[in-house]
Amino acid sequence: MDHESQTDHLKAYGVSYWVLSKGTKVKWLLNYRGGSFLLPNVEEIKKELIIRGVSYEELSDAEVSGILELISSPSQNMQEVLLEKAPKIAVYTPTGKSPWDDAVTMVLTYAEIPYTKVYDTEVLNDELLLYDWLHLHHEDFTGQYGKFYRNFRSAPWYIQEKKEAEELAASLGYDKVSEAKRAVALKIRDYVVGGGFMFAMCSATDSFDIALAAEGVDIQEAMFDGDPSEAGYQNKIDYSKTFAFTDFLLERSPMVYEFSSIDMTAKRKIKKELDYFSLMDFSAKWDPIPTMLNQNHTSLVKGFMGQTTSFNRPEVKKNVLVLGENKTNGEAKYIHGIRGKGFFTFYGGHDPEDYQHRVGDPPTELSLHPNSPGYRLILNNILFPAAKKKKQKT
Questions:
Q1: Residue range(s) defining the domain that contains residue 49
Q2: How large is the average pLDDT for residues 82-92?
Q3: pLDDT exceeds cutoff 60 at 390
Q4: Are residues 26 and 149 in the same domain?
């Protein structure tokens, strides 16, 4: 899985998942040649590797023993992690066609990793309990329809999606979309607290935390929910309820394409060609969890924009681990934390291989980016629940 040897990093994860789904365990060699996978040397697996176009090397028993001995050495920042079972994956996404694509569903499809779509009905019916890992689609949990009002309020897709959201909320017993979305956010919170793994990208990150912090508070303007927002609502925000963010200020105007001060999109002063974020280096033996999440063939990853591009560093809670950051702009790009018995990871930006994805743009063709470091970070999170965990020390 290093830079020089692997022809398709993304499909390599799919093969590892496939092996796990067959009931065979996989060893993930953290920090060894880009985070390589050690698979049994059997014909069925070799055929699958060839079919999917994944590079591999055959090793003798003596060579394997030598590698594992090297990895176990106290002088090496490496670790062997056993992956035990293929996690059941749910993607929170509407069933209808959206005017944007979703990076996670694209990479899961490309890597041939199966997943099930769920949305508000399934979440509120406690069906998340059937899954080990949940991804949140590009979503607005605040009930403000993505803050697309200014530019798209007359667009047919916006009008149709608003209508469908209102009908769905009513069918679920809620008077407002914002109330239904908050109920969904609370169910997702309970899923994580109970031991689930949750991964969110772009606007699903900050809008999720805002929904939790604004529980019982009306922060929506009349064009979103039919009545004015609550007077002085900023002072009623409860940051203790959030997963990752604190002390943020909400964006009140419906004419501004922004939820709060969490997002760094409008504050960025970085040229596209210089936009990179660096992955933090952790001790593989003492901190296997962040090490797993940061496995890559490079420590410098191309930046990419989104409605929520990255996170204002001072507004990230102190107990949340920053996995990737752009120091020059004071922003966190990739963060991870623990909530109750579960884990969450937030990844800023919309599409790791489409710098500034806009509504209506065509989806990324991942066959053109089989070695994408930005997409590898997503797939690290997919395999994370498969690992036998050790207590984190950081």
A1: 9-83
A2: 96
A3: no
A4: no
